[in-house]
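for the writeup, i need someone to sanity check this before i put it in the appendix. the sequnce is what the collaborator sent (i think, or maybe the updated version? ugh). structure was predicted straight from it, no edits. if anything looks off just tell me and ill rerun, i have time this weekend
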Amino acid sequence: MDADEKAREVVRQGYSAIAQGTSCCCCGGTASPEGLARGVGYLAEALEGLPEGVNMGLSCGNPVALAALRAGQTVLDLGSGGGLDVFIAAKNVGPSGRAIGVDMTADMLQKSRGSIAAFTASSGLENVEFRLGEIEHLPVADESIDVVISNCVINLSPDKGQVWREIARVLKEGGKACISDIALKRPLPGAVQESVAAMVSCVAGAISVEETLGLARSVGLGDISVREKPYNLDVMVDCNDPLYREVREGLGAGCSLGDYVVSVDVSAFKATS
């Protein structure tokens, strides 16, 4: 197993544990899933009526709001997890649209697919699909997607350049990528960079905003905008989960996550010919 595949396996195992409920990325203190979702920009009405358990507190932004979706669009969520953004997107694009989630973790897919029936029963919509796959190798046809979204996932990939190439491949001409992610403000301490917990909890794989912009431009995307959000990642300070406890210890005395990382929204468009 090469280094990239080892990294993917670490993430896969970590998120399988989250899906199974034996670990979590937000727990205890103020870091409830609902509290975190509201903290990163989800309105209460967007969260209402969703199947139980789809909000797992794994967000660092609200890419659906950033996307300003329209009826009839086809939306693809990279690393869809429990399905939170897919189900919200499905309501926004309506019965003539489609919302597709891709995740490489079988346990997450079981969880998200298990919520489809409840979503259909409450919304009357049958426009949701979840596919097994890696975001570096999307099981999606060329130029078939109007909007690509992703929420705190690309930082987990060991080959972010390939992810952006895939985004450009699947987008239609004039299509839009709306990415919420974590970016570095300054280099992480060595102990955190090497930490398995930091990798699973979306910290160790983060890159700078400038590097992200370079990757988007390198695949031909343009009209790129970036917004750093006021959300303070130190809301995690009360989290008792072992993942975040290990990360905090690696930062050293007197340091916090907010000293090193920031939550950002990135949007970019695929040019028309």
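The two ends are 41 Å apart (CA to CA). The chain has one domain: 3-270.
thx in advance!!
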